[in-house]
Amino acid sequence: MTHARAERTALCDLLDRVGPDAPTLCEGWTAYDLAAHLVLRERRLDAAGGIAIKPLAGYTASVQRGLKAKHPFPELVSMVRKPGGLYGLLSFLDAQVNTLEMFVHHEDVRRAQPEWEPRALPADLERLMWKRVSMGAKLMLRKAPVGVVLRHDGQVALAGPSEGPKVEVRGPASELILFCFGRQKHARVDYVGDDDAVARLRNAAIGL
Question: Could you tell me which residues come within 8 angstroms of residue 189 by beta carbon, excluding any fewer than 6 positions away?
């Protein structure tokens, strides 16, 4: 089983356990909203553009609401369990695109629940995540208000403005992924830098 499928399965198992009204780290979204988002992302390509393109966001939101109105929560979760669209046809594409997506959304549900703790992840998954961090940091942190030095196991990736104050962010690759995806307040990372710069970074709207 690929890491993408493993995270997908674990996420769906958790969604089934916590139920539709459980909170998530996605602002304003319940578990029901998140399940609808994931179905839309894979099975309604006509509406997926609004996930990243603001002028299209209204249509995307209306389709997401429509999915909730049409499908009970358990049905949406069942649809998420099996990769849809191109991801269902091309397993390599699912592994390439959805490993981080499913990991981050799995943690969105886990870390919104009480008494959560970070998971011990396979070493090869951590290596993959650092590769994605080091390659994608500049894009993911393009909105960072200060320079960012990501440090993991002696390796470094730079992002954010080249001038001005810099903050070093240290942690496991999986926690740095969550940081880069805008989950700063729930990522178990250490910050080193000026207090004001750290506060600005922790509260910034970053991520894809």
Answer: 169, 170, 171, 175, 176, 179
pTM for the whole structure: 0.93
Side-chain-facing half-sphere of 189: CA atoms under 13 Å: 31
Residues in a beta bridge with 156: 151
Q: Provide the token pair at 120.
A: 């011990």
- DSSP string across 18-86: H-TT-B-SSTT-BHHHHHHHHHHHHH-HHHHGGGT-GGGHHHHHHHHHHHHHHS-HHHHHHHHHS--HH
Taking the C-alpha atoms of residue 124 and residue 70, their distance in angstroms, rounded to an integer, is 39
**pLDDT-above-90 percentage for the chain:** 81
Strand 166-170's sheet: what is its strand order? 155-159, 147-152, 166-170, 190-192
Q: How confident is the model at residue 111 (pLDDT cuts 50, 70, 90)?
A: very high
Q: Rounded to 5, what percent of the chain is helix, strand, coil?
A: 60, 10, 30
Non-local CB neighbours of 199 within 8 Å, separated by 6+ positions: none
Residue 45 has pLDDT above 90, yes or no: no
The domain made up of 123-202 has a fold known as Nonspecific Lipid-transfer Protein; Chain A (3.30.1050)
Residue type at 37? H
Question: What residue ranges of the chain are covered by domains with CATH 3.30.1050?
Answer: 123-202
How far CA 131 is from CA of 128, 155, 189, in Å, comes to 5, 11, 18
